[in-house]
Inverse folding.
């Protein structure tokens, strides 16, 4: 059975906290409370909180500061926040939006409205979680026959998100690429496993089979509008800036930006890990190969702007790689 949803109520007035608890508890919610933003952050660090209901005016740390702190914390930022504001306070509303609040509740609280907002917020969050879970399942299914297993797909998502952020892309774009980059190789389910697992270079015929995986990936992902970036990434992550990639030989900005970002993220991770056809490299060596080239990679393969950002965030990529590497990851010689 699923555990009860846990709601953190934040208000400096005992009376308001008691009111919220009285309204929420009979509906099966578990209520945790805090008297200001700072105390709320301590609770968030300790307990699995599903939703935050926060007053705006509080001593020590107010509701806006609390909301901004939640949004900038990697572990907490997905938690929905409902701000409780005085009716018609436009300035407070704008501040709440820019701090990242998801919803508002006007004071004095209307019990029916409170329960509906909480219920809707939790159920839309549950659908989002299920969507993310299924995307990852699909990506994992595609790894069944492949040598790229373990955390490879998740790392490519995180590297891509980091690069997209440094490029100044909006939050929604960053979240999309983090999730949907994991589908880049989903088309490999159609590539025979003896080709995927072959040690040594592929012959022409095998290479031709391998080169079909982007188109198969796009076909599997299909046309759902929520998966548009995933489809672009799957189809174009082997295109190269200088036009020497596949499947279409697109050049420069003809290649969708998402795919230009994932191309470099995928490449960095592939270099850090051993493959049947190549050894693994340490961070400096991997960066050197991407920025200076080797017998198969050329810096001209990458969007110069994305390559610049890659160089800039390379230390962060290394830290991410270290925190997400597979337990049996190979150690460079
Ligand atoms: Fe691929």
């Amino acid at each position: 059975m699923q555990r009860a949803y846990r709601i953190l109520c934040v208000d400096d007035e005992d009376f308001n906290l008691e009111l919220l608890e009285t309204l929420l508890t009979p509906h099966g919610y578990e209520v945790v409370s805090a008297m200001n933003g700072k105390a709320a952050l301590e609770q968030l660090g300790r307990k699995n909180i599903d939703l935050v209901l926060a007053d705006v005016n509080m001593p020590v740390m107010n509701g806006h500061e609390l909301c901004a702190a939640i949004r900038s914390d990697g572990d907490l930022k997905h938690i929905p926040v409902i701000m409780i504001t005085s009716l018609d306070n436009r300035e407070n509303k704008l501040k709440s939006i820019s701090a990242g609040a998801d919803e508002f509740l006007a004071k004095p609280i209307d019990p029916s409205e409170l329960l509906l907002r909480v219920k809707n917020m939790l159920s839309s969050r549950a659908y989002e979680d299920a969507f993310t879970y299924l995307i990852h399942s699909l990506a994992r299914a595609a790894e069944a026959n492949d040598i790229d297993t373990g955390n490879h797909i998740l790392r490519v998502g995180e590297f891509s998100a980091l690069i997209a952020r440094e490029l100044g892309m909006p939050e929604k774009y960053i979240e999309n690429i983090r999730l949907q980059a994991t589908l880049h190789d989903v088309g490999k389910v159609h590539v025979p496993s003896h080709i995927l697992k072959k040690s040594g270079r592929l012959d022409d015929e095998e290479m031709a089979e391998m080169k079909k995986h982007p188109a198969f990936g796009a076909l599997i992902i299909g046309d759902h509008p929520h998966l548009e970036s995933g489809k672009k990434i799957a189809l174009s992550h082997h295109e190269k800036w200088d036009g020497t990639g596949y499947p279409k030989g697109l050049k420069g900005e003809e290649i969708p930006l998402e795919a230009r970002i994932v191309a470099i993220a995928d490449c960095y991770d592939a270099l850090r890990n051993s493959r049947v056809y190549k050894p693994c490299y340490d961070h400096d060596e991997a960066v050197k190969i991407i920025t200076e080239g080797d017998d198969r990679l050329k810096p001209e393969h990458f969007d110069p702007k994305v390559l610049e950002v890659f160089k800039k965030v390379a230390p962060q990529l290394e830290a991410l790689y270290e925190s997400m590497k597979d337990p049996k990851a190979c150690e460079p010689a």
Observations:
- Residues 142-324 form a domain with the Hypothetical protein af1432 fold (CATH 1.10.3210.10).
- The chain has a mean pLDDT of 92.
- The two ends are 49 Å apart (CA to CA).
